[in-house]
Amino acid sequence: MRDSVTANLATLAVVQMTSDTDSEANVAVALGLCERAADQGATYVQVPEYVTFYGSARGFGDAAETVPGPTTARFAELARRRGVTVHVGSLLERTPAAGRFHNTSVLIDATGEIVGVYRKAHLFDIDVPGEVAHHESEAIVAGNDVVAVEVGGLHVGMTICFDLRFPELYRRLAREGATVLAIPSAFAAATGRVHWEVLVRARAIENHAYVAAAAQVGTTSDGLTSWGHAMVVGPWGEILAQSRGDEPQLVIATVDLDEVAKRRAQIDVLTLRRPDLYGEAD
Questions:
Q1: Active-site residue among 34, 65, 93, 120?
Q2: Exposed e or buried b per residue across 79-112, where buried means at least 16 C-beta atoms within 10 angstroms of its C-beta
Q3: Could you report the per-residue pLDDT of 45-89, keeping only the tens digit for each?
Q4: Catalytic residue status for 34
Q5: Residue 147 belongs to what H/E stretch?
Q6: How many other CB atoms are there within 10 angstroms of residue 266's CB atom?
Q7: Are 233 and 2 in contact (CB under 8 A)?
Q8: Residue 4: what pLDDT?
């Protein structure tokens, strides 16, 4: 076994919290948990989807901001001061169109610079009778870019929540070199209880990559209910750390980044693909 001093280690922290409609309070909670993560040695910390505002689309106009903007500035100050990479799970970003917004992730390096911006590509438009109905596209504009960024020794593939159901995106990110798949989420409780864990682990196994999945949990004042269960999963599909209960908390795991190359060498799914068979360009 390699000496831990020479191992290629990183400490990943993902946040579980309950955002609501008070943006200032939400950001204060998120920043406090990021500070605690840094205190515990995290080198990368990720907060959930809709971290600044999670409520009815009626409030999107007041909550939306620019990127860069006031919220990214606050997280950038923390990243710079504590020397950590911060993944701002997602926030509402203004667009030129009235009443239309992006659901946007921002990745900030340890100097406080924005190094990655990803706008959610797959929007949560579902109708499961008696369980959950939601149409994110009524207010959110889908993004059109695949984003993978090298930062702080990691190669981060950026995705958001409902993207989790589209494995093609994750395979593309893995083929572009991603070793950590970021999935900040506000996963609906109705489907989360049966789908969340198996989907998160599947994306890790399919691509032999680490998955960092921050999560909203509980019920907002507008009745939006999230499953929680923030987790870090390894490239063999093992759950390395997972939240317990519904309270705001940190989930932290120290990982060996060389494990990705090891597992990809053992089962080389990226090379053994048959795009000719699927009717895809390589």
A1: 120
A2: bbebebbbbbbbbbbbeeeeeebbbbbbbbbbeb
A3: 999 999 999 999 999 999 999 999 999 999 999 999 999 999 999
A4: no
A5: strand 147-151
A6: 9
A7: no
A8: 47
Q: Which of 34, 49, 65, 259 is catalytic?
A: 49
What pLDDT score was predicted for residue 158?
A: 99
d(CA 137, CA 209): 30
Q: Count Cα atoms within 13 angstroms, Cβ side, for 37.
A: 34
Could you give the dihedral angle defined by the CA atoms of residues 144, 16, 133 and 20, in that order, rounded to the nearest 10 degrees? -100
15: helix, strand or coil: strand
Nearest residue to 204 via CA among 244, 171, 172? 171
Four-CA torsion 73, 74, 77, 82, nearest 10 degrees: -140
Q: How many CB atoms neighbour CB 190 within 10 A?
A: 16
113 assigned to active site: no
The residue annotated as part of the active site, out of 34, 65, 93, 161, is: 161
What average pLDDT does range 104-115 have in this prediction?
Answer: 98
In order of 86, 176, 191, 213, 216, the CA distances from 186 in angstroms are: 18, 26, 11, 10, 5
pTM comes to 0.96
- Tokens 């060498």, residue? 265
Query: Which residues, 6+ apart, have CB-to-CB distance to 138 below 8 Å?
Result: 57
